Amino acid sequence: MNKKELSFALTTPLYYVNDLPHIGSAYTTMAADVLARFERLLGHSVLLVTGTDEHGQKIQRTAESKGLAPQSFCDEMSVGFVSLWELLNVQYDRFIRTTDHRHEAIVKEFFQRLWNTGDIYLGQQKGWYCVSCEEFKEERELLDEHRCPLHPNKQVEWRDEENYFFRLSKYQSQLQALYESKPDFIQPSSRRNEVKSFVNSGLQDFSISRVNLEWGIPLPVDPKHTIYVWFDALLGYVTALLEPDQEPTLENAIAKWFPINLHLIGKDILRFHTVYWPAMLISAGLPLPERVFVHGFLTKDGQKMGKSLGNTLDPISLIKCYGADAVRYYFLKEIEFGKDGDFNKSRFIEKLNADLANDLGNLLNRTLNMVKKYCGGNVPQITNDNIPFDHPLKGIGLRLGEQVKNAYETLAFNQACENILSLVQACNKFIDDQAPWSLYKQGRQEAVELVLYTVLESVRLAAYLLSPVIPDISSDIYQQLGFGINFNDQIQTSANAPFEIHSCWGVLSSQQKLGAPHPIFKRIEISEND
Ligand code: MSP
């Protein structure tokens, strides 16, 4: 395998800084972190890119409305993203801000390449512009009174101005060939079909510069113009690949991590990533990303979230109240990644109590207490060979690592969690059926030990495979089982808990010194306000 096959570069969108991060931005970022953590467990070298999109009319106007210079406004707002990712326990490798001076150099060099191929020309742009989307809209897409379908409380604005255009139309057949030859380029397939029919209906060149807008990167060939915010932002993915002290050239940026393996995005920014972006890269003579995965939108209590509706969900207060693991678990387990999903407070509490406090937490706690009572607090002296293949837990455990790997790799996070939880639930049933307390009373010590060992080993395996989603809880479980492993420590985890060993059944050994049992997730009491 070459180096690129063992490495994995993935991105979140670069978030607009016009507002504080919302649950939608947190959703993509936590999914990206889960996948990055899983890839690291596999022993791959991973680069997780996130950051902020800071130019354009929307940001300039918001800064003006607050009486701030755009740069100071962006400096202030981007900190909010950094601190939310810390709170959410996101281990990103690069945080790119599009106002980083190195980014300007990359954008200008890239622009120059397209200019040299003759793919950029000056023209007249007439059309309806949605500042919130930072995108021209077709008249037929609009709601009445020229309102944007994605921002129904905002009217689009008429523009008739000189802009530079990118010859997108020239790439129609190459894009069509791409979607055919690489069916996995856009996932899920429903999104691929959407893009295919959009491209089949004919592509128009799009404008990549603005006049009368100062807050952007000046066009190298005509500084009266600034570069269109989306053209600039997509290139943030490239700038982010530079090593921290490297000279900002395209050659340096693409040397190690390019092409990017995976872009994670929401459904509203599909065209930019699957039509405009690949065409820009083809024009620049650069290789294309391997995959773009599109997730759905989150609603609250079945309703679209929005400030005007007054039903936004603040990720910071949710994490402060329930912890990062709880929030990560709910969104990844309860929502199929790729489909729309809903947040409802009572369901959130119910799920966390059922899965984390009861099924997983109580299981570990009661098993450790029984080990204390019936086995002197030591891991029973059982080796894997003593456990028959048709043992109900071993049977599940032997297949689980592979199933869960497959689920993570296809971004079926809910499936991964469900598979793991089914082992945990099987353990609870197994204990109830076997009743080790009765076996103990009957003096059947060996049988007691077999039950307790197989349950503890199952909990270990579940904790390991859940560690990308709930790293703190998994670390706590591992420590109670006597492993000195903290899943937030990448170096220690890859050295001492590699996937090829720890994802298999039968790792717990009688040499382990068990830690003191304590609850891994405190049951949430439902208050009047919930
Ligand atoms: N700045 C652009 C991205 C440039 S990438 C080179 C942008 N930023 S954004 O902050 O408006 O949106 C970022 C992401 O949040 C998008 O993927 C969008 O789909 C996602 N979400 C916005 N609202 C959302 C929900 N209600 N639910 C889930 N994700 C949502 O677009």
TrEMBL record:
<feature type="short sequence motif" description="'HIGH' region">
    <location>
        <begin position="15"/>
        <end position="25"/>
    </location>
</feature>
<comment type="similarity">
    <text>Belongs to the class-I aminoacyl-tRNA synthetase family.</text>
</comment>
<dbReference type="GO" id="GO:0005524">
    <property type="term" value="F:ATP binding"/>
</dbReference>
<dbReference type="InterPro" id="IPR033911">
    <property type="entry name" value="MetRS_core"/>
</dbReference>
<keyword id="KW-0963">Cytoplasm</keyword>
<dbReference type="InterPro" id="IPR023457">
    <property type="entry name" value="Met-tRNA_synth_2"/>
</dbReference>
<feature type="binding site">
    <location>
        <position position="151"/>
    </location>
    <ligand>
        <name>Zn(2+)</name>
    </ligand>
</feature>
<dbReference type="Pfam" id="PF19303">
    <property type="entry name" value="Anticodon_3"/>
</dbReference>
<dbReference type="GO" id="GO:0005737">
    <property type="term" value="C:cytoplasm"/>
</dbReference>
<protein>
    <recommendedName>
        <fullName>Methionine--tRNA ligase</fullName>
        <ecNumber>6.1.1.10</ecNumber>
    </recommendedName>
</protein>
<keyword id="KW-0648">Protein biosynthesis</keyword>
<feature type="binding site">
    <location>
        <position position="133"/>
    </location>
    <ligand>
        <name>Zn(2+)</name>
    </ligand>
</feature>
<dbReference type="InterPro" id="IPR009080">
    <property type="entry name" value="tRNAsynth_Ia_anticodon-bd"/>
</dbReference>
<dbReference type="Pfam" id="PF09334">
    <property type="entry name" value="tRNA-synt_1g"/>
</dbReference>
<dbReference type="InterPro" id="IPR015413">
    <property type="entry name" value="Methionyl/Leucyl_tRNA_Synth"/>
</dbReference>
<dbReference type="GO" id="GO:0004825">
    <property type="term" value="F:methionine-tRNA ligase activity"/>
</dbReference>
<keyword id="KW-0547">Nucleotide-binding</keyword>
<comment type="subunit">
    <text>Monomer.</text>
</comment>
<feature type="domain" description="Methionyl/Leucyl tRNA synthetase">
    <location>
        <begin position="144"/>
        <end position="368"/>
    </location>
</feature>
<dbReference type="InterPro" id="IPR041872">
    <property type="entry name" value="Anticodon_Met"/>
</dbReference>
<keyword id="KW-0862">Zinc</keyword>
<keyword id="KW-0067">ATP-binding</keyword>
<keyword id="KW-0030">Aminoacyl-tRNA synthetase</keyword>
<feature type="binding site">
    <location>
        <position position="148"/>
    </location>
    <ligand>
        <name>Zn(2+)</name>
    </ligand>
</feature>
<comment type="function">
    <text>Is required not only for elongation of protein synthesis but also for the initiation of all mRNA translation through initiator tRNA(fMet) aminoacylation.</text>
</comment>
<dbReference type="GO" id="GO:0046872">
    <property type="term" value="F:metal ion binding"/>
</dbReference>
<feature type="domain" description="Methionyl-tRNA synthetase anticodon-binding">
    <location>
        <begin position="404"/>
        <end position="525"/>
    </location>
</feature>
<dbReference type="InterPro" id="IPR032678">
    <property type="entry name" value="tRNA-synt_1_cat_dom"/>
</dbReference>
<dbReference type="InterPro" id="IPR014758">
    <property type="entry name" value="Met-tRNA_synth"/>
</dbReference>
<keyword id="KW-0436">Ligase</keyword>
<dbReference type="InterPro" id="IPR014729">
    <property type="entry name" value="Rossmann-like_a/b/a_fold"/>
</dbReference>
<dbReference type="Pfam" id="PF01406">
    <property type="entry name" value="tRNA-synt_1e"/>
</dbReference>
<feature type="short sequence motif" description="'KMSKS' region">
    <location>
        <begin position="304"/>
        <end position="308"/>
    </location>
</feature>
<feature type="domain" description="tRNA synthetases class I catalytic">
    <location>
        <begin position="17"/>
        <end position="142"/>
    </location>
</feature>
<dbReference type="GO" id="GO:0006431">
    <property type="term" value="P:methionyl-tRNA aminoacylation"/>
</dbReference>
<keyword id="KW-0479">Metal-binding</keyword>
<feature type="binding site">
    <location>
        <position position="130"/>
    </location>
    <ligand>
        <name>Zn(2+)</name>
    </ligand>
</feature>
